[in-house]
Amino acid sequence: MAPVAPRRRGRTKLGWNLLGLCVFLTAGFPVYWMLNTAFKPAKDAIDPNPHFFPTTFTLENFSRAMDVADFWGPVGRSLIVSLVVVAIGIVVGMLAALAISRFAFRGRKVVIVGILAVQMVPLVAMIIPVFLLLNDLGQYDKLSGLIITYLTFILPFTVWTLRGFIVNIPKELEEAAMVDGCTRTGAFLRVVFPLLAPGMVATSVYGFIQAWNEYLYALMLMSQQNQTATVWLGNFTTKNGTEYAPMMAGSAMMAIPIVVLFLLVQRKMAAGLTAGAVKG
Amino acid sequence: MSAAETTTATGPSARRSPAPGARPGKPQGPGKPGTAGKRSGKGGAATPWALLAPCLLVLVLVLGYPLVRLVTLSFQKFGQGQLWGFQEAESAGLDNFTTILGDREFWAVVLRTLLFAGGSVIFTMVLGMLIALLLQRVSGWVKTLVNIALVASWGMPIIVATTIFKWMFDSDYGVLNWLLSKLPGVELIGHNWFASGPQGLAVIMLLVVWGAVPFVVITLSAGLTQVPKELEEAARLDGAGSFGVFRYVTLPILKPVLVMLTTLSVIWDMGVFPQVFVMRGGHPEPEFQLLTTYSYDKAFVVNDYSGGSAIALITVLLLLGVVAVYMRQMLKIGEVE
Q1: Is A195:B59 a contact under the CB 8 Å cutoff?
Q2: More confident residue, A174 or B199
Q3: CA A215 – CA A150 distance, rounded (Å)
Q4: Model confidence, pTM
Q5: How far is B19 from chain A (nearest CA, A)?
Q6: Hey, are the CB atoms on A103 and B256 less than 8 Å from each other?
Q7: Is the pLDDT of residue B112 over 90?
Q8: 3-state secondary structure of A238
Q9: ipTM of the complex
Q10: Region class of A138: left (phi > 0), else alpha (psi between -120 and 50), else beta
Q11: Residue from A37, A52, A109, A120 whose CB has the most chain B CBs within 10 Å, to mutate
């Protein structure tokens, strides 16, 4: 094709940019609306003519949100559960990921299919037997019980993602180290492990976020006084209606740390989840 | 197979430049059997199993047992009495399944779930692809802005996102009704989006798509950077328009990623639960029921745990049926080295 004249190219670029800005506004609007509501006085939130730009800033909604039920309790519980789940998941998952990505053995295919398949079982399908199991084990309404159940979805995810990161590290590096006299374990610890570290960090953070965000199990398996952060958000809706402004403040407090964490790892995560798919 | 397909698909357009055309096939073809041979040469069979042991042990305990229990439950009569241990669980044979499969409402729920999940997946994939392509054409600063918005919505906890959408679509104070009413001829002040199932589910679908598009865009953007420029050039020299280049060069190369993204989307969208549950204040009306909420309702509202389990089991089987086609591709991804 003949090269496009510079002026026309400039104009199409402007068109694409405008379209891009529309995407930005649409995708970003719900986030903006949460923040906008969180920082304006509660009575402005229910004004029939919404204020698009906050005129008065207030932190009142945040203090109101902290007063509803108990804020730090649920957050603390979510923190404990998420951290323990990730710690177990990453250690156990790492070993398994190593096995399926660096070894050929009979049954490897079965293990891979198994790990993929269990990821397909929707959490909701598991809720009834898990509920009965925890009931039998006396783990109902206990943080340890919630940790056990969270492993059902964190572990397969961790194995699959870490596998993606390991596959991206050339095997030749290990082989070279072994030629130079390292043992297999030594080669792994000195060569692969340092290269894998960023991937492990990303996987941990992402796993943490998933555990933190889980709602169904937390709702079903924990009583009111042991609720976690996601379920805590439901406290703003009562029979007398919903307190939207403090609810948005609560949402912001829950979401902002997570989104910031997420920002740090998202690129690596997309790479890990799809490793091998693009390369092939 | 994917490499072979890529090569044949790009074949015609890359006719005049054999070098780039040969590229996608190269890493896989001759390399694969070699590495497999090398791999089996080292380490006994004991090492990988030892490494897998902790993981398998945990999975069998936390997942295997409940899964088996799910199956046995669905063939039992198990209600409140059995839960508290007043009564023994007795075998119900196929009763649970015949009851459910003979229920008209169940089939309505199945159809609704398939429409909902199908619609969500299609919208997510199409929008994701279009935005990823758009991002290749915009200036750097626009790209940064869009990326910030996407990451913010991707990272937003589902429960928070649901809460925000509930607020935006509030009938009295929702910003959406107000905004839409600004359009000429639209009067939506006080409109209740959740008065009817289809409309309410459309809002929920919007919420699901909003949350799912970013992952697709970011992954496809990464994939698009790997499409060799020479191939696109070659296709263009051969007279292909933008659509032709996309159809015959970009799409075949992205195929494995697209298949994986679609598979994940199907799994996620068939499992939509909190969005509906929270939007409807914990009690979805009959016309809002999807398979997930329906199974939950059966078990925990009617206290028919075995009926709920049977529905959950049917959901899993249905999902596996839909996904089985793609499983092979996923497996192949797992096979790459």
Answers
A1: no
A2: B199
A3: 11
A4: 0.84
A5: 18
A6: no
A7: yes
A8: strand
A9: 0.86
A10: left
A11: A120
